Amino acid sequence: MIEKPLEAGRRGSRSRSGKRPWQYSLRFLFLLTTICAVLLSLALVSRHFPMESLIFGTVIAIAGAGIILYIGELYVIGWVVDFLSAIGMPKIHAKPIPLDYEVVAEIVVVTLRDNIATAGHCQAVQKQLKHLVADHHCNFVLDFLSAGNVSMSFRPVMVQLLKAARREAGKLGKPYRPLLLPQGDVFKVFDDKQQAVEAMSRHGGHGWVVLCSVPVGIRAVSEA
């Protein structure tokens, strides 16, 4: 689901994880102290039990070498499998699902479905939306009624569509009339497709993008 984007963290000097630099210094110091204590203990034990310490160290070294060899074997096997797959099985690129839309007067109603769940799907939808703008359409209703999971990457797609629609309206010589929106909102949201079409049919301007049937889980899609 689309979630409300987080604001850039400019408040304070904390790192991205929210922890101050001195906390990392304390952790590193504690880890270094622990390692030194363990090494010192092993040195003291080896003086009193040299044979046992030698045997224990040998076992640890063999176990460590075995783990390293096992990881290396997995890495080599994975590389060989990927290489054989690349030369023997050509990649099959799934064709993008055609965009479902209808034209009502001068309004293009786009029905969004489960083809926007990944960044790749978003790019495919964006490409088809560009074709609609290239066909001299500049008024869009995006219907989320049949949409499933929506990628975060779809929000920039809608913003780009809004900009392209305004530019196309200017090229066509159609007047642009801004929508009355709450402060901070970018897109006007309607309850359903019929309400959106009826309301925007009475709107005197062109070059706009509105949303309808937006689930509560992705309601933040309409905010800046």
> Percent helix among the residues?
40-55%
Shape: elongated
Mean pLDDT: 77
Poorly predicted runs:
1-19, 219-224
Short recap of the structure:
This protein is α/β, with parallel strands linked by helices and 224 residues long. 49% of the residues lie in helices and 10% in strands.
How would you portray this structure in words?
The protein contains 5 helices and 5 strands. With 224 residues, it is α/β, with parallel strands linked by helices. It has 2 domains: 21-88, no CATH class; 100-222, 2-Layer Sandwich (Transcription Regulator spoIIAA). A 5-stranded mixed β-sheet has the order 1-2-3-5-4. Helix 1 crosses helix 2 and helix 3 (119-134) packs parallel to helix 4 (154-171). The longest helix is centred in the first third of the chain and has 39 residues, at 50-88. The radius of gyration is 30 Å and the shape is elongated. The two termini are 16 Å apart.
Topology:
Blueprint: H1 21-48, H2 50-88, E1 100-104, E2 107-111, H3 119-134, E3 139-143, H4 154-171, E4 188-190, H5 193-201, E5 208-212
Helix pairs in contact: 1-2, 3-4
Task: Based on the model shown, name its key terms.
alpha/beta; 224 residues; Transcription Regulator spoIIAA; 2 domains; 49% helix; five-stranded mixed beta sheet
